[in-house]
Amino acid sequence: MRFIDRWANSEKVKIHYLESADYNTSVTPLVYVPGALNFAEQSTDLLGKLLSRKCITMSLRGRGNSDAPKGGYSFDDHVKDLHAIISDCKVKNNSRWGIFDAYFYITKKASLV
Fold first, then answer.
1. Exposure pattern of 3-18 as b/e (b: 16+ CB <10 Å)?
2. Which among 26, 46, 64, 92 is placed 20 to 30 Å from 33, CA to CA?
3. Are the CB atoms for 4 and 78 separated by under 8 Å?
C-alpha cells in the first residue's frame, strides 16, 4: 500500500498524517490513532494489510513529522488535532482505531468529531 504525506493545521500547529493512495471508495475508511510514543510511519506495515480500505494514520503533536510546540499537549489538544485531520482529508462515516490513550478518545470523545 502506498501512502501520501499530508499535514493538517490544528490551531497553527502542523499535524502530520499519512493517507493511503489507492483504495475502494465503497469501503468504510479507517482512521488509526497510534499510542502516545508512536508516529504515523510506524503503522504503515500494519495498515498495509487492509489493501482495499482508505487508511489514515497520524503523528501526535511532538512526534514524527508533526510540529512540537512548547505547550498544548493535553488530551483535548490531541482531540482537536484528530478533528483537524478528519476535516482535512474529508472522510465521512469513518471507523477509528487506536491503542492506549486513543481508547479514551474513541470511547469518550468521539462525539466531538
1. beebbbebeebebbbb
2. 26
3. no
